[in-house]
Every structure is written in structure tokens, then in C-alpha cells.
Amino acid sequence: MNKSWTIFKREYLTRVKTRGFVIGTIIGPVLLLLISIGPGFLMNLQSEKEKNISVVDLSGVVYEKLDEAIDDTTETGSRIYQFKEILATESKLDSVKSTLRTKVDQNEIDAFLVIPPDAVDKNESEYYAKNVSNFEENSKFRSAISGIITEYRLKQSEIDPALIDKLTKRVHLRTFKISRGGKEQEDIGLSFVVTFVMIFFLYFMLIMYGALVMRSVYEEKLSRVVEVIISSCKPFQLMTGKVLGVGGVGMTQFLIWVGAAALLGVYSQAIIGMFFAGAADVVFPHIPVSVLVYFVLYFLLGFILYATLYAGLGALVSTEAEAQQLQFPVLFMIIFAFIFAFYIIRNPNTDLSIVISMIPFFAPITMFTRIATMSPPFSEILLSLALLVGTIILLLWLAGKIFRIGILMYGKRPTLPELLNWIRY
């Protein structure tokens, strides 16, 4: 056991002291912040540049109302969208559009709108610009024109638009999540985001640190360092030390990131409120302590399970190309569990979800997804953990036998019959 501890310290300290680990650990929370806030902030960031937009309104309905419908301003208070009416007739429309296209091409105007004479009846309008991939801006023009024409139709029908708006106003549906013990908490769906982030973290860490165990094994095997190490300890002690050492590195990084996430969670409303109006009123989901405990538990057990598999694979290969080929089945299991988690988020208690969450190779992600989404009966969680621990013990025994012989084997990759012989040996 002392020798496994020595190997554990070596594996742990050599990785934790590297610049890559320090930089990666710092970048993690920064990326978490950017991913959480960045996209929404950038999408809501308005351009301060004024835009000159010509309007050809053959319907005679839209132009006069556009300034009122689209009144975005810069920080200085000036209007962003400067609309200018272009008078035209239906017979000269093609000529006018050709002239306006030239002006857009020569940057004399930014864009132009064409409202056909039958827009009220046919619900069509046209927008021309060099860039039509600004979907928010496109939607703004579409909504404004649609609103103006709808209001015009109502007035023509002698129906009060305000009354129609009052009668057709949508009913707000507040959603509450009921947790164990009948406790309720308002949740607008942010618990899905939290669940997804935690699942993705599990998925990412299993792949990254599992592969790191395999790489560590076959690199020492190729450099013949392992021959020196094996002379002073048993192969199983080497495998155990490596698995726990690299796992300790992952756990250290995990704890640092959790601390950063917790700090971000405390001030999340204030931070998001700086960028989004009304965010201060949003009720952010409370993560139960039990969910965090299960997250750590399934992370540790999942890591040991896959790290053991990766250590066994690392002992079998003699080249990096062989390592890439052999790790595909292991990667497939992790990827399958991650993809299936999206089905479980929507259907946590179906028979298929229950069965998949019980399979040990998928359980670290799938069972945790069920726990985070809608906590299953404790008996199912206990059974899942028992199967997972039993599979780990079996894998440690099998991988230990393969590791014992494979770590000193070079050249041709062993065949399946040879692997069976190693296990029987």
C-alpha cells in the first residue's frame, strides 16, 4: 500500500505543479462565466452606428408609423434607425429598386424596405441590405411592420386595437418544481441549464482524465521507465497509484471549479442584472446538497471505472495509433451516456430511462441525470451504486491481470485468446 501511495503522490504532484494545470484550472471558471453570460450579452449588445434606411411604401400604411414602432436610440439619445421615404409608383418600382440597390452597394444607405401596395391583403414586405444575417434586426422589422398593418386592419374593421390586445393577452404560466418531501420552488427552466452544465462536466472529465491515465501508462511503457518501477512494486500497485493519482488531479480541479461556480452563483443575479433588464426578478434554482453529494460520488466512481479500463488499454498498446483505436469502444460508452441524458431530462421515470441508468458503464452520467432532474426512489439509487461498485471491483481484478502481463509486453498487440489466457494465468 505504501508503494501505491508513493506512485499516487508522484502522479498527483507532477501534474498539479505544471503550468498547464494551473492555467487550465484558472481558465475553467473564466470559460464558465463567458459561456453563461457572453452569448446573451453579445446578442443584446446594440450597435451605436446610425443606419439610414429608405422606405418605399406603396401601401401608404406603414411609413408614418415606423418611427414610433422602431425607436431604438444610442447612449447619447439619437435614433439608430433613420427612415427616409422614397416616393414611387408601382410601374416605376423596378427602376427605384435598382437605384436603391446601387446606393446600398456604394454605402450611401444601409438598407431599404419595400412595402407592396397589397401588403395589407397578402402579408408580404421586402428588406434589402448587404447583411441579412442579423436575425434580431430582421425580426424587429418584421414585428414592426406586422404590428402596424394589424392595427390598420382593426381600425378599418372599426374594432378598438386596445380592446383586442386586452382580450388576446397571454396568460403567464408560473412553473414550480416539487422536490422530495413535497417542497416547492419556482423554476422557469433554469434547473435544466444547471443539470446540463453538471452532466457536461462529468462527460468532459471522464474523457479527459481517463485518457490521461491511458497516456501515462503507455508513455512510461514505451520509455521503459515502467521496467524500473515494476522492479520495486507490484503491477497492481502501479495501476492503483496511477488511477488514484490522476483522479486526485481531476478532483482538485473539480473542487476549485465548484468553488468558483458557487461564488458565481451567489452574485449571479447581480451580474446578469447588469446586462439584462428584469433579471433581478428571476428566481434562480437552488441546488440541493444531496445532488452535489451524488455528483461527487458518481464522478469518483465513474472515474475509477473508466480509468481502470483506460489503464488496462494503456498496458496493451505499444503505439499511440493503437491507443487511439482501442479507446473508441470506451469513448462510445461515455458519448452514448451523454447523448441519452437528454432523453432522460425529459423522461426521467420511463422504463428505458430506469434500465439505462442501472447499467454501470452509463450510470455515472445517466443515473446522476435522473437524480438532478427528478430524484428517483432511493432504492434505485442504491441499486445503481451497488452495481457500479461491483463492476469496478470486477474490472480492477480483470484489468489487474491484464496489466500485470501487458505492461511488459512489446511489439504485437495481443489477440482476444491471448487476453483470456492472461486472465486465467
Structure overview:
With 425 residues, this protein is of the alpha/beta class. The chain has 2 domains: 2-36 and 188-424, no CATH class; 51-164, D-Maltodextrin-Binding Protein, domain 2 (3-Layer(aba) Sandwich), CATH 3.40.190. The protein is 66% helix and 6% strand. The chain contains 18 helices and 6 strands. The chain has helices at 2-16, 19-44, 63-69, 93-105, 119-122, 135-156, 161-167, 190-222, 225-230, 235-266, 268-273, 289-316, 320-326, 328-346, 351-358, 363-373, 378-406, 416-424, and strands spanning 51-57, 81-85, 111-115, 126-129, 176-178, 184-186. The protein has a 4-stranded mixed beta sheet, sandwiched between helices. A two-stranded antiparallel sheet has the order 5-6. Strand 1 (51-57), helix 3 (63-69) and strand 2 form a beta-alpha-beta unit. Helix 8 packs antiparallel against helix 10 and helix 8 packs antiparallel against helix 14. The longest helix is centred in the middle third of the chain and has 33 residues, at 190-222. The model is unreliable at 275-283 (pLDDT under 50).
Descriptive key words:
D-Maltodextrin-Binding Protein, domain 2, single chain, two-stranded antiparallel ribbon, alpha/beta, 18 helices, elongated, 425 residues, 4-stranded mixed β-sheet
Global shape: elongated
What is the count of β-strands?
6
Distance between the termini: 23 Å
Low-confidence residue ranges: 275-283
Q: Give the biggest beta sheet.
A: 4 strands, mixed
The averaged pLDDT comes out at: 76
Radius of gyration: 31 Å
**Helical content band:** 55-70%
**What is the topology, as strand order, of the major beta sheet?**
2-1-3-4
Order of helices and strands: HHEHEHEHEHHEEHHHHHHHHHHH
Helical run tally: 18
Structural class: alpha/beta
Provide the β-strand percentage band.
Answer: 5-15%
Count of spatially separate domains: 2
